[in-house]
Amino acid sequence: MHVQRSISLIQKLATAEPYNLGFSGGKDSVVILDLAKRAGVKFNAIYAITTIDPPGTTSFIKKNYPEVNIIRPEKTFFQIVEEKGLPSRTRRFCCEKLKEKYGIGNRSIEGMRKEESPKRELYEY
């Protein structure tokens, strides 16, 4: 039921421009990639290396999800911290520099679970 509803929503909101899928190799990303494929819509799946990724993540993605574009940042996480200091919940420059900039101007599909936080539990699914 939820799967077909998700596929229908992805198809309904599709345009000529491809969706942007932020891919991490985790279970939410794998589900979103599968839903986009099943929906038959255009999409670009992107894994933006943060330089502090768990070991083996990049090789796992290359081996199992070759359609995912792997992007290396201009600066490492530690170089950014040297310039700007440590990130926090309100100072999210590291996400902006290492991950979010690759989706600017594009519509995106994101995977979220209610169980992840009280705030997400309030979202309508």
TrEMBL record:
Pfam families: PAPS_reduct. GO terms for molecular function: catalytic activity. Transmembrane segments: none annotated. Residues 20-121 form the Phosphoadenosine phosphosulphate reductase domain. PANTHER family: PHOSPHOADENOSINE PHOSPHOSULFATE REDUCTASE (PTHR43196:SF2), SULFATE ADENYLYLTRANSFERASE SUBUNIT 2 (PTHR43196). This is Phosphoadenosine phosphosulphate reductase domain-containing protein. The lineage of its organism: unclassified sequences, metagenomes, organismal metagenomes.
